[in-house]
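Milestone 3.1: sequence recovery, worked example.
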């Protein structure tokens, strides 16, 4: 049975995380994603851990874009693609002669996504951008700190992951529009603006009240809710998150604690009172959680209908999480690709009732699919491809 995006051709010039994550999603959904790689850029080849993580379900085409012949081949491929996507600094593909205007003249149906750090306009358009700098400029670093440590910020390339998800959605929307209009379009995607958008209610607070949001750690800034934080448990660096969102939740927590005298303090009868006295309330709760295992606290509270979750490590997720084990979230590729054995993978976190989306092929070695891709897309013979390889174009 065909996967949802089978037949969609994607020419992928992306690198690092944001762009490759977007095209990984498209590949998981069945698109023919051709990853343009080169030995001249080893960070974008199987030697890099990012490459192994984000480039499954893609075919590998080696092109040395410093050569004119490689740019000719890239242009011919772009003229036959449904989607061209890149996340270089602005105008790199224009300099190669394969920018949107040049390709759209021959391929008016192309969806052409340029997901640079700052977008293609404005005084910062030529900024070199990576997740830490985008987090800082957008306000995410500041907002996700704790009081007195506004430098801590958010980690794990959060904005890059969100950019990948947004880019995949944008591509699907553009392809859907093409079905009605018959024409493609260019999408200028500024990852920085996405980061600003992700500051969410902090923007609204400033728009409405001219109040600049202060970092608050794990306490809820825009809901009157307490306790709402992470609490220490037995063991080294073991924590549990607890979110009491209503008075009903509070009464359930009190009952679970045995309704101790401190919990009957009238100041805690309302959410407003609990928020106003959060420091004292949290200290009481910590004395209880610190005597128990984090999973035990989670299960006790969830059993009482109160939101709680262990602050899990990678080891927890892979080896001890019963939910992920039951759903088979962690699996491995069906082949080895560029590596000595199958690659462990996290599955696409969705399931279609009638369409398969569970095929996972390992990232491929540089140029492993030169013959197949150039044969299918450009009708080149194997002899033609081997000659280009020998000449240094395909490397």
């Amino acid at each position: 049975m065909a996967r949802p995006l089978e037949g969609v051709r994607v020419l992928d010039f992306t690198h690092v995380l944001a762009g490759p994550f977007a095209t990984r999603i498209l590949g998981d959904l069945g698109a023919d994603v051709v990853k343009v790689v080169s030995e001249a850029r080893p960070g974008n080849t199987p030697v890099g851990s990012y490459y192994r993580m984000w480039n499954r379900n893609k075919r590998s085409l080696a092109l040395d874009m410093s050569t004119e012949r490689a740019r000719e081949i890239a242009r011919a491929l772009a003229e036959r693609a449904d989607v061209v996507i890149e996340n270089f600094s602005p105008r790199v593909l224009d300099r190669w002669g394969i920018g949107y205007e040049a390709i759209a003249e021959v391929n008016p149906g192309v969806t052409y996504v340029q997901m640079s750090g700052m977008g293609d306009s404005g005084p910062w358009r030529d900024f070199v951008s990576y997740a830490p700098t985008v987090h800082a400029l957008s306000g995410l670093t500041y907002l996700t700190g704790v009081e007195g440590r506004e430098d801590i910020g958010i980690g794990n390339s959060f904005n890059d992951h969100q950019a990948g998800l947004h880019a995949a959605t944008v591509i699907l929307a553009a392809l859907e529009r093409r079905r009605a209009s018959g024409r493609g379009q260019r999408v200028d995607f500024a990852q920085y603006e996405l980061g600003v958008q992700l500051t969410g209610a902090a923007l609204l607070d400033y728009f409405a009240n001219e109040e600049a949001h202060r970092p608050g750690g794990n306490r809820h800034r825009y809901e009157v809710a307490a306790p709402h934080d992470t609490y220490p448990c037995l063991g080294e660096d073991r924590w549990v998150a607890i979110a009491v969102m209503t008075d009903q939740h509070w009464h359930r927590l009190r009952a679970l604690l045995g309704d101790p005298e401190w919990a009957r303090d009238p100041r805690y009868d309302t959410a407003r009172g609990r928020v106003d006295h959060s420091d004292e309330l949290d200290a009481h709760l910590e004395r209880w959680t610190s005597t128990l295992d984090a999973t035990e606290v989670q299960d006790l509270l969830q059993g009482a209908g109160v939101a709680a979750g262990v602050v899990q490590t990678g080891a927890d997720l892979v080896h001890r999480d019963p939910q992920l084990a039951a759903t088979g979230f962690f699996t491995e590729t069906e082949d080895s690709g560029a590596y000595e054995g199958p690659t462990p993978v996290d599955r696409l976190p969705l399931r279609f009732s009638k369409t398969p989306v569970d095929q996972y092929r390992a990232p491929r070695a540089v140029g492993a699919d030169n013959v197949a891709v150039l044969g299918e897309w450009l009708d080149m013979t194997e002899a033609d491809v081997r000659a280009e390889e020998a000449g240094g174009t395909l490397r």
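The mean pLDDT is 94. The first strand starts at residue 9 and ends at 12.
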